[in-house]
Amino acid sequence: MKFEDLLLEIDGFGKFQILILFILCLPRMNLPMHFLLHNFLAATPSHHCAIPHQEAFVNLTTEEVLLISIPREPDGTFKSCEMFSQPQFHLLLNSSLQPENNSIIQQCQHGWVYDHSQFTSTISTQWDLVCEQRGLNQATATFFFIGVTMGAVVFGYLSDRFGRKAMLLLALVCAVIFGMLSAASVSYSMLAITRTLTGVALSGVSLIVLPLGMEWVDVEHRTFSGILTSMFWSIGNMLLAAVAYLVREWRWLLVAVTGPCLLSIVCLWWVPESARWLIANGKVKRARRHLLRCARMNGRKDFAVSPEALEKMILWSKMLQDLFIHLSCRTPVLRKISLCSGTLWFGVAFSYYGMSMNLTGFGLNMYLSQFVFGFIEIPAKMIMYVLVNRVGRRQSQAWALILTGLCIGANIVIPKRKILFLAIMGKGFSEAAFTTAFLYTCELYPTVLRQNGMGYSSFMARLGGALAPLVFLLDEVWTSLPEVTYCGVAVCCGLVAFLLPETLHVRLPEVSSILPSTWSLLREAGNIPLRRP
């Protein structure tokens, strides 16, 4: 008997599964509030060099002081990072004149003055992360995603070793601790370290939530469950816009987005450990108890499973686990899956965060852009729910990512008035690619390697997420270079998806579908009677 057969007997999508999925949606909804927090945490308001007071300025207005102290851009706005070494009083007579001698222009010497009409404070204004320090501002997001990258490796191993639920609880507790420490940071270095550690913790949440729910759901409802769970990411996206609009001070904003983790910790009490994991690790009594509880809640009171039947599953899993891990990189099928899925995830995350962290480039205020970008994800997920079941996972995954790249690339040549439409379409495609990637990857790896496979894929995704913010710095080389980079990576990685196998209407892989040669080896062992599933 296989685990899917047990799920059919206890109802693979009843009240029990629905309760688990909705509880796990709470931490899922909280994730984008941290993953996209950089948009507001490190926002840079308009600013100019601070001008020291002089006696000659007594009778001048603030506008006149700026006029004689700060050079202008070609569009007439004051430059953000430069000032005159000496006041240019002749500009009071004719403001259109600009000094021809650049030697009188220097970098800001006395700090900066910021426009606080939109933000009370951000980390940019707190530690002057502008002009020459602009790179440190962008690096804050990179530090966070470096932590997420490390967390994918750490929690991928730990959740397979010690269980999904226990490690999810540990990840949530750590997220609360390091999130609050981030809000209390007294220096940029402390913020960078605590945000990195917060990323490690939240990576565990992101990595475990989906498989923990999916491993309780039958094949028929697997797609629906994945789409439903991802819907709450989009809701969290929209909630971030509302929270950031209401909380304009960066420290309290961190507290506001970290607090919901406490509710997730409390609700996790009602979530059982994955029965798949329990069986694979020889914990028969706990697995049987959870299966019977599931059957009762789903109205299957006549369900019964003997410990002997579960012990056969354990024997089967133990025989396969070491063999799978030993052969996973030596077997062409799994080697190909690993290389292609890693490349795919890098491209998905790189393009998604590249678009999500560019809220000011589309003509709307950043709060409305954040809300619209979150809202468009919902119809994108609904469309993907239909497509992945009609045209398959592979085609849906590949074309969603390719179209994301094309939308980004089109921004270079399309008139400004149409950029917003393209940006919204591109954001929808990028979310469709992300949603499909979660579902697709879960279906590509066998049970004993699934969490390791998700950990590896998440590692590659977070690597893409870590590099995405830094690409914006390339605009100093060529204004359109960031868009060209995002476009090229998305299209190339989308093409790689065509190399992966289709998983539509296929059982979650456990044995022979991934390593057919392994089947022959086990049959030759002759220790137990084996029947191909």
UniProtKB/TrEMBL annotation:
Location in or out of the cell: Membrane
Highest taxon of the lineage: Eukaryota
Domain Major facilitator superfamily (MFS) profile: 87-505
Transmembrane segments: 139-159, 166-186, 192-212, 224-246, 252-271, 337-355, 367-386, 398-414
Keyword entries, A-Z: Membrane, Transmembrane, Transmembrane helix
A GO cellular component annotation in the UniProt record: membrane
Pfam families: Sugar_tr
Gene Ontology molecular function: any one: transmembrane transporter activity
Membrane topology qualifier: Multi-pass membrane protein
Annotated protein name in UniProt: Solute carrier family 22 member 7
Species this protein is from: Accipiter nisus
